[in-house]
Amino acid sequence: MEPRTATAPQVEGLVSRERALRDFFEAWEVPPHLKAAELVSLDDAAGRIAACDVFSSTTLPVVRASGFDGVGVRSSDFEAGSPDTAGWICGRDFVRADTGDDFPDEFDAVVRIESVVLSDEGAPSFPSDLRVKAGDGIRAAGSTMRPGIRLIAEGMPIRPTDLAALAMGGAGMVAVRRKPRVAFIPTGSELVPAGCSVKRGQTIDGNSPMVKHLLIEYGADPVMFPIVEDDPDKLREALDRALESCDAVVVNGGSAVGSEDFNVHIIEERGRVVHHDIAAVPGRPMLLGVIEGKPVIDLPGPAVAAFYGMQWCIQSVTARMLGTKTKTLPRVTARVEERRDNPPFMANLSRIELHRDGREFVARFLDPRKGSSLGAALASNAQRVSPLGEGALEAGSTIEVELLRGEEFIGES
Ligand SMILES: Nc1nc2c(c(=O)[nH]1)N[C@H]1C(S)=C(S)[C@@H](COP(=O)(O)OP(=O)(O)OC[C@H]3O[C@@H](n4cnc5c(N)ncnc54)[C@H](O)[C@@H]3O)O[C@H]1N2
Ligand code: MOO
């Protein structure tokens, strides 16, 4: 193994996240088998990505329907004003026609039930000034659904309302993109699984539960590997198993220059490294590589670094495999509470505790340099990625922050 040159955590001249992804997508192409669609039932289509445009084939109402709860009548009976309804018989002179009901063709209008008084025998009487025209209170054929309406477009995530549209448009099965299988391999002899007690020298694998559910959120099928200790042979073996069964591999940890950071070398010896070390912090030592035509990404170990790398990189790779777009987080404008210095040559992910001050949002940066913990950062309710080239943020200036919890959960400090 070649000795590596240590790079300081904050250095100038590294590639931007955007450039790293552009280069990666030039070096790696989505394989055809991932572009193939699979047919799933409507129930299983929720949250999946539509593989093609789907158009309606149905007409609803099939002929016509009542627009509200009421009484179906003949408009001709109302030509000379409100008719004398003594002796009217249901089915002959009128019918009950409630919202959405089809009813016999000889009745051409519906009078709202609120305008009708029904006798004990069920005969209706109408206000003397009631005007009724043909078509009143009737929903036309196709006013709910008609053939040719685009129900979902290719590449769109399928929402519950889309399921309603697809069902009513006549789609029993839906063509969706195959879920890419993404392996996650946590590495580090110091790691113990969540729920275990920790001894000196150990720490808890918090990334596996986080990454698993981020992958699910991105639309992938996560394949979670057990913790692999810092032993090159065991790491190689896990990587081989992951490459055999998955479409992409995320290795976690061992991305920097520590004496047991083997993953970078193992990826280098097996395939092509497109970029290692990105102008994004935390998580600068991220590695984007390709082995046997599959993305192999080494995600830095610290949990916030891993989260950020998942967001900007793995989410984009997964979206590419699914033929869809990455999600943007909702944003609000906030006032900066305290001056913040960021190196301008890195995209800095800052975790923020957002609170309200009257009608204003106030951003309190959680700064590890000022004693804030990684735990507090993980629990925070907002974040901001500084654009490359940005210097200090002055106290009192306004910025856009991304919400990690709904606005309804942001309270007074
Ligand atoms: N001399 C240098 N040291 C470091 C550099 C550097 O350039 N020179 N880079 C730093 C930066 S920046 C980062 S980011 C980290 C990258 O760390 P690794 O990806 O090599 O990860 P490890 O060394 O294996 O672990 C680092 C840290 O993260 C914890 N970890 C790892 N996996 C998990 C997990 N699944 N769940 C929770 N925590 C995890 C691990 O225990 C360590 O505490 O390197 C810096 N050092
Ligand atoms: O500073 Mo690293 O970039 O710990 O994530």
From TrEMBL:
Enzyme Commission number(s): 2.10.1.1
- Gene Ontology MF terms in the entry: metal ion binding; molybdopterin molybdotransferase activity
Query: Per the UniProt entry, what species is this protein from, by scientific name?
Result: Berryella intestinalis
GO BP term, pick one? Mo-molybdopterin cofactor biosynthetic process
Keyword list, A-Z:
Magnesium, Metal-binding, Molybdenum, Molybdenum cofactor biosynthesis, Transferase
UniProt protein name: Molybdopterin molybdenumtransferase
Q: What is the lineage of its organism?
A: Bacteria, Bacillati, Actinomycetota, Coriobacteriia, Eggerthellales
At the top of the EC hierarchy, this enzyme's class is: transferase
Q: What is the top-level taxon of the source organism? A: Bacteria
